[in-house]
Write a structure and sequence with these properties.
The chain has about 250 residues and is α/β, with parallel strands linked by helices. Helix content is about 40%, strand content about 15%. The longest helix is centred in the last third of the chain and has 21 residues, at about 230-250. The protein is globular. Bound molecules: 6-hydroxyuridine-5'-phosphate. 6-hydroxyuridine-5'-phosphate binds near residues 37, 175, 189, 192 and 221. It comes from Chryseobacterium camelliae.
Length: about 250
């Protein structure tokens, strides 16, 4: 028999980490489980996307190192203002993958100073349990499984990665294309309503599919939104699709 999934309300009741709580509260307030992935390369495009999608998303996912005109004052300060105005969190998809000391430097130093503005970050767990200790002031989403064709995140890798994710107090969730235990939030990228792939190894599923079969909590959508003619309309479409798919997955 298919197991029931937990609702956001029940996950909120047992949430331990302040970032998990915030994400679930925003999800319930906005009736959204959508994270927009801002894979754009200029500050203007990043801020435009944040302004347009802001009301419909729970978080904006950045790859801050692809912004060619990055400038802390001109990029991050207005981005933080938009996050406050539209009530969404900032998720830096840095995918740290080194020893703890190096990750700590990458997290706190350089031009991006991720520690100063990101609410949560992604990290590989390939460096082991202690490599995640440095992300004290943010939430960590552990990369457990990837969406791309031929990924090395096999069953046995995912199992070991999950052990670290479930036991580390800084970890709030996992990125994966497979089910995870209900006490960790599941973030699923590789979501697109129009395409099944991008010709570069990315593999897409629909919101319906990921909520029904993976019991995902949050969908991450990049090109489906920022490449759309009307990014705001596309965000609203994914928001509604995601929310309806979540409601249906509660009934099963
Ligand atoms: P798109 O929807 O345009 O394919 O973008 C997906 C986003 O999610 C990208 O920013 C990518 O880095 C990220 N991502 C992914 O696609 N698969 C993963 O397994 C993990 C990711 O972070």
């Amino acid at each position: 028999k298919e197991e029931h999934r937990l609702s956001y309300e029940s996950k909120l009741k047992c949430a331990q980490h302040s970032v998990s709580k915030k994400l679930l509260e925003i999800a319930l307030a906005k009736k959204s489980n959508l994270i927009a992935s801002a894979d754009v390369t200029t500050t203007q495009e990043l801020l435009d996307l944040a302004e347009k999608t802001g009301p419909h998303i729970i978080a904006l996912k950045t790859h801050i190192d692809i912004i060619s005109d990055f400038d802390y004052e001109k990029t991050i300060l207005p981005l933080k203002e938009l996050a406050l105005k539209h009530q969404f969190l900032l998720m830096e998809d840095r995918k740290f993958a080194d020893i703890g000391n190096t990750q700590e430097l990458q997290f706190t130093s350089g031009v991006f100073k991720i520690t100063d503005w990101a609410d949560f970050v992604t990290s590989q767990v390939i460096g082991g349990f202690e490599s995640l200790d440095c992300f004290r002031n943010v939430g960590v989403v552990a990369i457990v499984g990837m969406s791309s064709k031929g990924t090395l995140t096999t069953n046995s890798y995912r199992e070991e990665a999950l052990k670290i994710a479930l036991s580390h107090p800084n970890v709030i969730g996992a990125v994966s294309q497979h089910k995870v235990p209900e006490d960790i939030l599941l973030f699923t990228p590789g979501v697109n309503l129009a395409d099944s792939g991008d010709g570069k190894g990315q593999q897409y599923n629909t919101p319906q599919h990921v909520f029904k079969t993976l019991h995902t909590d949050f969908i991450i959508v990049g090109r489906g939104i920022y490449k759309a003619e009307d990014a705001e309309k596309a965000a609203l479409t994914y928001k509604n699709e995601g929310w309806n798919a979540y409601l249906q997955s509660l009934e099963k």
